[in-house]
Design brief:
With 259 residues, the protein is an all-alpha fold. 78% of the residues lie in helices and 0% in strands.
Length: 259
């Protein structure tokens, strides 16, 4: 099995533990997201006529959340911030679980709308926090060798999540699916503890790595914008995503309008 594994991924003995932890970490993050994604999509289908304002709420919420995210990470180390971030998501899921049970039917429309926006923002930050941690943990050379295998963990999680939802949707309430997602996020938060503090990065010593892990992440709210403007590669990606999203249909066209 060891020989087969080394043929699949070019991993060194001191990297195996961090590699499998990254694999599991990404697996549970995406599995948790894909468990609740069908719930969000179903809400979107029910609000098909009002999706424009729901996506506007998502945009505003994401801008505010990004500013808050930048403020926090500039003052907190990654090993402290990541568990807190995922447990914040867990707390939100528990709140939605309670609201879905206690709010009357007439008020559920507001709960559904808030949950739709929350899942959209959660999708961005859950994966961004993960990959930010991975790029801090591994060197560029290690990433080229190991990130492909870690990404497979996310792909498998993306496959398992919908299977769980499809298997349970007719047997349990929507709130139970939220609890399953919360459990997976707790596994993600716990996995950060087991990443080796002495994990070697190039020529750095274990003492330097441990000190780096305890330093604030740093950065400012507008750093991402300035970095995109300075990098032709990132600016090209920005334009690609902007144009691609603009080509997607935003409303239905009546057949009479096509005549």
């Amino acid at each position: 099995m060891k020989r087969i594994f080394t043929k699949i991924v070019d991993v060194k003995p001191d990297e195996v533990r961090a590699l499998w932890l990254g694999f599991i970490f990404f697996f549970v993050v995406l599995a948790g997201y894909y468990v609740i994604r069908p719930v969000r999509d179903n809400i979107g289908a029910n609000f098909s006529e009002d999706l424009w304002w729901m996506f506007t709420v998502v945009l505003v919420t994401m801008i505010v959340a990004n500013a808050l995210f930048s403020f926090i990470v500039a003052r907190m180390s990654r090993r402290k911030f990541i568990p807190i971030a995922y447990r914040f998501f867990i707390a939100n899921l528990l709140i939605f679980f309670v609201l879905m049970r206690v709010v009357p039917a007439k008020g559920q429309v507001w709960v559904d709308g808030a949950f739709f926006a929350w899942v959209s923002v959660f999708n961005l930050f859950a994966t961004a926090v993960f990959w930010g941690f991975m790029t801090d943990l591994f060197t560029t050379e290690q990433g080229k060798r190991l990130f492909g295998f870690i990404a497979v963990g996310g792909s498998l999680g993306g496959i398992l999540g919908p299977i769980i939802t499809a298997s349970l949707v007719h047997r349990v309430s929507t709130g139970v699916l939220l609890l399953i997602c919360a459990g997976m996020l707790e596994i993600a938060a716990q996995s950060v503890r087991f990443f080796p503090a002495e994990f070697r990065r190039g020529d750095s010593t274990s003492t330097e790595n441990a000190a780096t892990a305890d330093k604030p992440i740093g950065g400012k709210f507008w750093d991402g914008v300035t970095h995109i403007c300075k990098s032709p590669y990132l600016f090209g990606l920005f334009l690609f995503i902007l144009l691609y999203t603009g080509l997607l249909p935003t409303s239905r066209i009546d057949e009479s309008q096509l005549c």
